[in-house]
Each structure stands twice: as structure tokens, then as C-alpha cells.
Design brief:
Number of helices: 3
Strand order of the largest sheet: 5-4-3-6-7-8
Shape: globular
Structural class: alpha/beta
Bound molecules: inosinic acid, magnesium ion
Helix content: 10-25%
Order of helices and strands: EEHEHEEEHEEEE
Length: about 180
């Protein structure tokens, strides 16, 4: 895919499907090795992580469960800084290993809140697996346990990520052309 126009903006491919596939498979291998025997609960953060979670979970070969939470913090291409929780956490996490599956860790505000919620609910080990990580924009002192691809501080769409709701279905990752 070359250039794509979504609403009023133009994006171009920065990570093709083949590169995404390799990166996801490395994360799955690491999780399979690290969490063997720990019966983890995967927690997919909707909406953005749906595609990463689906691809990742097909490669996870250890006994595990998956559940979903839903947050929203973006309007257009900017984080509002306020994270709204739209679907909450209902599982019993007491003593459990939890792996949060995120599309992207940007400012880190969403993940910080969710990690805290999991710990407050008694999780014994809380890990974060993210498709993308923008270390330059991260406002908290935090490093995800599993990162498929580290990216510069640009706005991106595709592979679950959206611009005003559009572009989530694109199978590759595109960067905003400035
Ligand atoms: P946070 O700033 O780390 O709390 O990220 C919150 C959410 O913002 C992420 O889970 C994404 O859904 C969204 N987000 C962050 N950066 C981008 C981007 O470059 N494109 C699209 N959505 C993004
Ligand atoms: Mg998200």
C-alpha cells in the first residue's frame, strides 16, 4: 500500500504486514517461554488492540484465558489526557498473572491506570504486551514488558489504530504525512 487518505489526512506505510507478523511472533515466543505454567489472563484493551490481540493469541500456546476492557482517550490525532473507562474489569484477579494487551503505549496514562487497577484487584504479576511503544512521548517512568515495534513520536493508523474511528482495518501500519 502506498499513500492512503483518511478524512482530511494522508498516511503512508511505515511497517508492512510481513514486518508486523515477525514482530508479533517474537512477542508470542517470549510470552510462551516466560509464562509457561502461570495460567495467565490476557486483558485486551479495546478498541485499538483487537487486531494485535487476535494475531498474538493465535500464537500463544500455553493454557490461558482472555478478557476485554475498553478505554478511550483520543480525539482526532491528540490524546485528551483524560481516559474514559467504557467497559470495566469484572474478573477475579486475586493471585493471577495478568498480561495487558495494548495497541500502543503513548503517554502511558492508560496503561498506568490499568496496571494499578489490576494490582488493586489482587493480581500477583501484571505485565504489559504492546504492539507499539512511543518511548519519547511516554510521560511516566515505565517500560512495557513486551514491545513488538518501538516507533518515533508520530501519529499512526492501521492494525487496530484509528484516526477518528477510521483506518483500524488496515492490515499494515501507516504514519501521518506532515
Ligand atoms: P496513552 O497516551 O499511552 O494513554 O495511549 C492511549 C491510547 O491512545 C492508545 O491505546 C491508543 O488507542 C491511542 N493512541 C496513542 N497514540 C496513537 C496514534 O499514534 N494513533 C492512534 N491512536 C493512538
Ligand atoms: Mg488503545
Amino acid at each position: 500500500m502506498a499513500r492512503v487518505t483518511i478524512l482530511d489526512k494522508t498516511f503512508e506505510t511505515s511497517y508492512p504486514e510481513s514486518q508486523i507478523k515477525d514482530a508479533v511472533s517474537k512477542v508470542a515466543q517470549a510470552i510462551n517461554n516466560d509464562l509457561k505454567g502461570s495460567d495467565p489472563l490476557f486483558l485486551c484493551v479495546l478498541n485499538g488492540a483487537f487486531m494485535f490481540a487476535a494475531d498474538l493469541m493465535k500464537l500463544v500456546n500455553i493454557p490461558s484465558k482472555i478478557s476485554f476492557v475498553k478505554f478511550a482517550s483520543y480525539e482526532g490525532t491528540q490524546s485528551t489526557g483524560v481516559v474514559k473507562q467504557l467497559i470495566g474489569l469484572n474478573e477475579d484477579l486475586t493471585g493471577r498473572t495478568v498480561v495487558i494487551i495494548e495497541d500502543i503505549v503513548d503517554t502511558g496514562i492508560t496503561i498506568e491506570g490499568l496496571v494499578k487497577q489490576c494490582k488493586d484487584k489482587g493480581a500477583a504479576d501484571v505485565r504489559v504486551a504492546t504492539m507499539l511503544f512511543k518511548p519519547q512521548n511516554c510521560k511516566i517512568n515505565f517500560k512495557p514488558d513486551y514491545v513488538a515495534i518501538e516507533i518515533p513520536n508520530d501519529f499512526i493508523v492501521g492494525y487496530g489504530l484509528d484516526y477518528d474511528g477510521y483506518g483500524r482495518n488496515i492490515p499494515e501500519i501507516l504514519t501521518l504525512v506532515k
